[in-house]
Design a protein that fits this description.
By secondary structure, this protein is mainly alpha-helical. Helix content is 58%, strand content 7%. The protein has five helices and four strands; from the N terminus they run ααββαββαα. Strands 1-2 form a two-stranded antiparallel ribbon. A two-stranded antiparallel sheet has the order 3-4. The chain starts with 6 loop residues before the first helix and ends in a 12-residue tail after the last helix. The model has no long low-confidence stretch (mean pLDDT 89).
Amino acid sequence: MHELFSEQETNMDDAIVQALLDSYKRNNAILINLLQAIPEGGMEARALPGSPSVAEQFSHIHQTRLFWLDQVAPEFATGLTQLSRNDGEQLLLEGEPTRIVQALNQSCRAVCDAVLDRLQTDRAMEGPNARYDHPILFLQHMLWHEGYHVGQIKLALKAFGYTMPEEVEEKAIWSLWRTEFWPQ
């Protein structure tokens, strides 16, 4: 793949790939920061009765990473922590924040490793039931899905009566994307 490009274009491609992977790692850091900012009792908060709890949403994010990795790059899903278990006909999702943080970090690394592997080896990100036209589209799918759930988590927390203070939100979420300098 890289034989078609000049050294400068290859270096630019590498820089873009690194920036994209870094953005996904920042997204994961935001998830963890949000999780760690949740007040007592907030893990059970729900946007509406019958909606997933905050804890269930975090576990679902991890489980979704594992599901899609298993579909399109199964070697990267092997041995990763599961945050769900069946109890009869009911699926139970993990609610312990420490285990969720460990699992999110683990699956973030696996997603990044899978994307990088497929880009470097020029192998398709596909399996018998799913396919992505390009590994970056897999990464974008994960980002979009996780962003959706961050919105749901924040809505559930608001319904619970908790609105994250602006200074906490700035540090936990927005400062990971940009730096601001305002004149005094």
